[in-house]
Design goal:
disordered N terminus, 452 residues, 24 strands, binds glycyl-adenosine-5'-phosphate
Length: 452
């Protein structure tokens, strides 16, 4: 039975929390190191089946709230390869750089600001080998590539370092196609690439990651109220996917630290086990981007031409994934053993329910279990059939995957006792409590337990 839940904010537990999450992700098929069988590739991660399902649920919930459920938002799916002129206009060619120092001996590279933050201001000694560090210089983080077969005529293009510019370059197309009235927004989910000097902290800082971004076009005089509105919308979504809001802090970025395009930025920081760091950002970009791409907007009724200003709520998908995992990770004691489980909300969990026969070598149980599995799968989609190991092991596995319900077909299901015939056991992940439910009632029972 359920005993005390461990408070994972205590020092003892946070210290190895990251290790536990990384190993759970690997063991249960959420996330693997990129190119692993060839030794791995720093800053690249592969999502396995359950990871991809969880990631898709996070993205779908974002798209639903910010695109499908609204009537002022237009979705975009722009190309990842973009012409170099885009990145010249956006300021990335000139300014998307981090300060970097290199060790003269082992040639390891470090971000100057990270060494500073780690209390070795103006560091001269390499933290890895003790060699002498060189001068700090700016390192552009964009991945460049060549388009075209012949080296001499091939044009330089960049893998996008943010999804935002794929939205801005489609501003005119969107206005011409849909004639939206201000205020309106454009939204995109997709990959972004940055040649980070020191990718670290699991999926927190990688070289290939995914973003969910909105560019919301407004009349300039409304920017403060719009900014507050979007700040609340962002917080509402974070809470809806199960991010622990007691660990989220909205930090106003001081003027001297603002990005080149921003007039005001609020970073939502999360208390990760490795420190309080950026989760998402909200920026007031003014007319920076539309000006630089020479774009404007004409009001169709008044014929007035203006350059709308932009509020940008920007979300990292992988950081959302990590914050959801860290918020859901729980340890308790059940039946005298320490148990690890993910307290994921049913609409986010990679699999809603696992269906099992009590014993997999009893054909009559297997047949009934397959029937129940088929019925549930047709209704909910995210249903797993699990007959591996004994029932205790299955519960442990499904707890670690975050499966809210385990449905077991046993001998009472097939028996003649009218109270139990055609019933199954439904075990609840968080409490371990089990109830018997009629197969004919099972779909409604599970539906009733899924909050929005
Ligand atoms: N368009 C604005 C923009 O890209 P950003 O703060 O550089 O702003 C937005 O990035 C979000 O993308 C961040 O809040 C973070 O969630 C995510 N992100 C940025 N760099 C990342 C990286 N190297 N690895 C994983 N996520 C990253």
């Amino acid at each position: 039975m359920l005993m005390s839940e461990k408070n994972l904010t205590t020092q003892e537990n946070t210290e190895n929390l990251m290790e536990k999450i990384v190993s759970l992700c690997k063991r249960r098929g959420f996330i693997f190191p990129g190119s692993e069988i060839y030794g791995g590739l720093a800053g690249a991660w592969d999502y396995g089946h359950f990871g991809a399902e969880l990631l898709n649920n996070i993205k779908s919930s974002w798209w639903k709230k910010f695109v499908s459920d609204r009537s002022d938002m237009y979705g975009v799916r722009a190309a990842i390869l973009m012409r170099s002129e885009v990145w010249e206009a956006s300021g990335h060619v000139a300014g998307f750089a981090d300060p970097m120092v290199e060790c003269s001996k082992c040639h390891h590279r470090f971000r100057t600001d990270q060494l500073d933050a780690e209390a070795t201001k103006n560091a001269t000694i390499c933290p890895d080998c003790g060699g002498a560090l060189g001068e700090s210089r700016q390192f552009n983080m964009m991945f460049a590539t060549k388009i075209g077969a012949a080296d001499d005529t091939a044009a330089t293009a960049y893998l996008r370092p943010e999804t935002a510019q794929g939205i801005f370059v489609n501003f005119k197309n969107t206005v011409d196609a849909y004639h939206p009235k201000l205020p309106f927004g454009m939204a995109q989910i997709g990959k972004a690439f940055r040649n980070e000097i020191t990718p670290r902290d699991f999926i927190f800082r990688s070289r290939e990651f995914e973003q969910m971004e909105i560019e919301y076009y407004i009349r300039p005089e409304t920017w403060t109220e719009q900014f507050e509105y979007w700040k609340d919308e962002m917080a509402e979504w974070m809470e809806s996917v199960g991010i622990d809001m007691s660990k989220v802090h909205a930090i106003d970025i001081p003027e001297e630290d603002l990005a080149h395009y921003s007039k005001r930025t609020v970073d939502f920081e999360f208390e990760y086990p490795f420190g309080q760091k950026e989760l998402f950002g909200l920026a007031y970009r003014g007319s920076f981007d539309l000006d630089n791409h020479h774009l404007d907007y004409q009001d169709e009724e008044t014929k007035e031409r203006i350059v709308p200003h932009v509020i940008e709520p920007s979300f990292g998908v992988d950081r959302a994934f990590l914050a959801v995992m860290l918020s859901a990770y729980t340890e308790d004691e059940m039946n005298g053993e320490v148990r690890q489980y993910l307290k994921l909300a049913p609409h986010i969990a990679p699999t809603l329910a696992a269906v099992s026969p009590l014993l997999r070598n009893k054909p009559e149980l297997v047949e009934k279990a397959k029937e129940v599995f088929g019925m549930m799968k047709r209704e909910f989609g995210r249903i797993t059939y699990d007959d591996n190991g004994n029932i205790g092991k299955r519960y442990r596995r499904q707890d670690e995957i975050g499966t809210p319900f385990c449905i077991v077909i046993d001998f009472d299901t097939l028996g003649e006792n009218p109270a139990e015939k055609n019933t199954v056991t439904v075990r609840h992940r968080d409490t371990g409590n089990q109830v018997r439910v009629q197969i004919s009632e099972l779909i409604n029972y599970i539906k009733g337990k899924i909050e929005k």
